[in-house]
């Protein structure tokens, strides 16, 4: 991916290296919290739905003071450029397809742990979007996890992660996320998971739209970049994650979609770059 020398976003809130005291746990307590964080760390999934909906119930204090390395600085610059790309792309799409003005998200960079209105954020929880403050949260060490533990290396795979979280902000701006989460709260666990899958697959589709527009606008894609993104989508499919964790895939517990579904919807967004083409909620087959 060609990204050097391009504009970075001003909507970066860099908390790395900051010494702060915060509460590390969210509304999930005890073994439930431990299980969520372990899953997030080893599988690299977005655990936002598990972190939302509750106040802080644990009061374990953390003092955070992390050294910022050269790798950290470069990762921050990369994320800033990708975020700027999403801002320009979605501003154009909102203008042309929605007839409205796009309001960008803020992306919080942290290292180790930080706080969000959706609960405590840590490197273990993976990247996530918090609709309460309209901010995406990312510990860039997750890119190492993505490559080393999940087998999804490459800069465009990392860009896909950023684009996916910003896609949740797009859903929020369109009013989709609020409505979907409201229905989830009134549904059974199985039905809630099914809605979550449609939310995530739409975010994958929106990521595909972003990739198509980024190529047209910035000529940023290099040979192999799309394959990196598709591979990342494959490696973080629910069935693949469960299989790699030594478990038999259980569709009733899926919250993000299968590898095949995630690949298919990313490709759909790239090939049909319209918001309407990403209507996973009306799709008869995912």
Strand order of the largest sheet: 1-4-8-7
Rounded mean pLDDT score: 84
Percent range of helical residues: 40-55%
> Number of helix segments?
10
Summarize the biggest pleated sheet.
Answer: 4 strands, mixed
Shape: globular
This entry's quaternary arrangement is single chain
Low-pLDDT segments = 20-64
Question: Helices and strands: which structural class?
Answer: alpha/beta
Gap between N and C termini: 29 Å
SSE pattern? EEHHEHEEEEEHHHHHHH
Q: What is Rg?
A: 18 Å
- Total domain units: 1
Walkthrough of the structure:
The chain is an alpha/beta fold and about 290 residues long. The protein has one domain. Helices cover about 50% and strands about 10% of the residues. It is built from ten helices and eight strands. The protein has helices at about 30-45, 50, 70-100, 140-150, 155-175, 175-185, 190-220, 225-235, 240-245, 260-270; strands spanning about 10-15, 20-25, 60-65, 105-110, 115, 120, 130, 135-140. The strands form three sheets. A four-stranded mixed β-sheet has the order 1-4-8-7, with helices on one face. Strands 2-3 form a two-stranded antiparallel ribbon. Strands 5-6 form a two-stranded antiparallel sheet. α3 packs across α7 and α7 packs parallel to α10 (about 260-270). The protein is globular.
